[in-house]
Amino acid sequence: MDAAALTDHLVAELGDAVIPVVEHDLLTVTVAPGDWRRVAERLRTDPNLGCDYFEFLSGVDEEAEGLGVLLHVYSTGRRHHVQLRTIVPREGGSLPTVSDLWFGANWHERETAELFGIEFEGHPNPGKLLLPEEFVGYPLRKEFALLTREAKPWPGAKEPE
Amino acid sequence: MSISIDQQLGGTTFQSADGTGVGIIVHDKADQELRTADMTLNVGPQHPATHGVLRVIVTLDGERIESAEPVIGYMHRSFEKLAEYRDYRQIIALVNRHDWVSSVCNELGVALLVEKQMGLEVPERATWIRMLMAEWTRILNHLMFVGSYPLELGAITPMFYAFREREEIQALMEWITGGRLHLTYCRVGGLKQDLPRGALDMSRSLVPRLRERIDEYETLVLGNEIFHARAKGVGVLPPGVACSYGASGPILQASGVAEDSRKTEPYCFYDQVEFDVPVGTNGDSYDRFAILLARMRESLKLIEQIHERIPAGPISVKLPKVVKAPEGTAYVRTENPLGQLSYYLVSHGEKTPWRLKMRTASFNNVSVLPYLLQGSMLSDMIAIMGSVFFIVGDIDR
Fold this sequence. Notes:
heterodimer; A: alpha/beta; two-stranded parallel sheet; 24% helix; globular; B: alpha+beta; three-stranded antiparallel sheet; 17 helices
């Protein structure tokens, strides 16, 4: 299915629960955190969607809005991509795990949890993945400063920021 | 673990010094034959089969692996955070470092991503040359693993052969780009420089030579009885599980899924050239290795076609002094040597990305290890780990 057909299908099935946006032929549907698990299950099990291939799960710092979480899945049979997006609050944000729907989500959720500070409820093996256990802070949040840049200014002629 | 039963039978349990393992001393001689306790074994972080620093905590019941947990992050350099402080031209030099044996392929992904968001048309010549370089990089990368995998199984010779071939290709790449490992040849909107005179002839002359050598590997390694005994039927990955983990490249194709973004969602001019996506039937270590050789053959086929297709013309478009990607998001997926590489960009219209997600092939491929290792024998562990073909920098980023 192309992005337009996917949009029609998802809106027909889920109604107001999803807000579709298409950019460069890629469909991203935004849902409330409460609908995260329900829509993810739909992507996996709906025979018309059949998103069997796990691409990635990650976060985006949306500043005042909160923390965006993005799940990107693909259908090997139908060759279409769908991105599921939600926003959780910066403090105490949590989402139900999808690691039982796609095994690959296991590590991606651990990575997102440690780098953004989002809890994934029901995760079979929570705990730091890339960072040491004693690490404090969430490096991919915007308020977390890049230490090398704090200690020493950029040596180039022009600051890339 | 059955500590209480052992205690009932008169055994003594003890904890290892670091608190990770439990051992039992059994006093009764008859019990000695019956009692077993789980043993925790640390493999790595420094192990020749890990191509970097990867640690695996293995829980053993006798020689059978009960569970295996890879411990990653020893090489985490936070590329995604760094990218938020670099402009788009600098990011190209940054990304050829996560998978250090596929540098042009990584650069290509970022170049395509930024061009997509900026709506840039790249000259045809540049695109064809990019494809040529990407395919040679693929062969370089696969040669690395064609050499190292038999080495991990105890055969030293293929490593020397593979590096002899690598050196010839390296000479070509070095001549074209001036770089050896981190080529930094792609630019947003084109290439760093044009091909030097005679480079295409050299590239042409390498193809038949390599084809012969691949035949040689096939008889030398794939036809080897010991290799069969070590790799066949070991570490079987069913296609459904592979997709669910997001495995890609040789690992996914060996399981019988013909997923290769050059074919399924062509980028550059891959839709204008002829090639096949090789697939395996059993999804075992042997198939994964065989797929490497088959992929190299397909790349040679591609290179031959590309030679004839490179048109004359400019190799890059003129860019403004400051490259800014317009506000919005973009996603690009390319087939890297080790599997699928995706970049996801969130731009706020500035010189630097707001967020650049790197979905690297090795991260998802290595996350399959607990599944593959569980229930297998300890002696097969290296035969399985080696066949997942990963670069630690590509896992940790």
